[in-house]
(2S)-methylsuccinyl-CoA dehydrogenase
Amino acid sequence: MSKPELSKPKLKQPRPPELFSPWRTEARARLQQEARDFARDVVLPLADELDRQKAEMPRSLIDAMAKKGWFGITIPAEHGGLGLGVFEYCLVSEELARAWLSVGSILARGQGLGTQTLDEERRRALLQRSARGEWIGGIALSEPTAGSDLAGVRTRAVRDGDDWVLTGTKRWAGFALAADFIEVLARTREPEPGEPRSAGLEPFLVVKKPGTFPEGMTGHVIDKIGYHGFLTFELELDGVRVPEGDRLTGLYGDGGADADSGGFASVQRGLNIARVHTAARAVGVARAAVEDCQLYLQEREQFGHPIGEFQALRFALADMSAEVDQARAYWQQVAHRLDEGEAAESESAKVKLLATEMAVRVTNQAMQLHGGNGYTTERRVERYWRDARLTTIFEGTSEIQRRIISDRMLGRG
């Protein structure tokens, strides 16, 4: 008689992270689970299909997110938003980034972006559209010679009657073609002696039809190695006309309060939120790598044993998991401080630095644990590795974060 085949032991499944005191509420736990289910059932299959094609995420996906109210997480309820905070915004983004980084990122193109107009009635109307996911924008801050140094922006805005005329080159404008609008940072005047280099920089709202560029603007796609799901452009502005009413008082969400301090101050404030958001997205990508490795180490056999039985690989996975949990706890702490009204500039820089550098280490180690299989497009881990590498660059490089932190500790050199 032939011997019966021995059934393989059931794989130990990854355990998704929970919210713990003092951050846990039942409402947050429900929101986290809703985003987790959506990421697993809707986003992940699309990412597996479209990322390798460098294709854009379908509008149907954006519409499905809009129906859940996620483009208005931080918009007050009186304007149709969920009326929640940075914590909830980052909580949903981590779950979505666990499936596809770009989907965790697209949320930032709502949240009241492009609503800080001079006319209060129009501002309210745009906030409502933003909350519904019907006012999703692109941002054009950086230039070929002005990235981390935004005060070096050279794109000019010249007054011409009731309009401003914008001329210059912008780089790294993601989602620019598909957007309903593009926010452009431009210089209206040169700084006076004694003024900061940022004096004269203002954000402008360039309204457009999705799928087209406005008159005077052209763009070409930047071919990225990762961060697929939407296209990123270099834009040429040659006489783009913007009405005075579309000169903005701020760049992010509730920037109206910053109108007296100028548009550039709003940019700086918004970057603190963006950096915590980036930390949460980096945690999502790194967590995906850990969870995939947990399964792979049980499935893959060498020398007659699952490779997860080898101590060196087990310990590597343990270190990866600990680093992810550490970074998650930190972004939650900093997000809470932002919601409490603190500027938390140094803390935002620290969590962005630590979480993104962690994501690079963890996804790199995940590639190693997958061996040759990791160096193929057959496994998701190569996507995590490509996407994690970007997180140390956008929203301010790791070197910029170190400069911010050290300047707060020692003063400017």
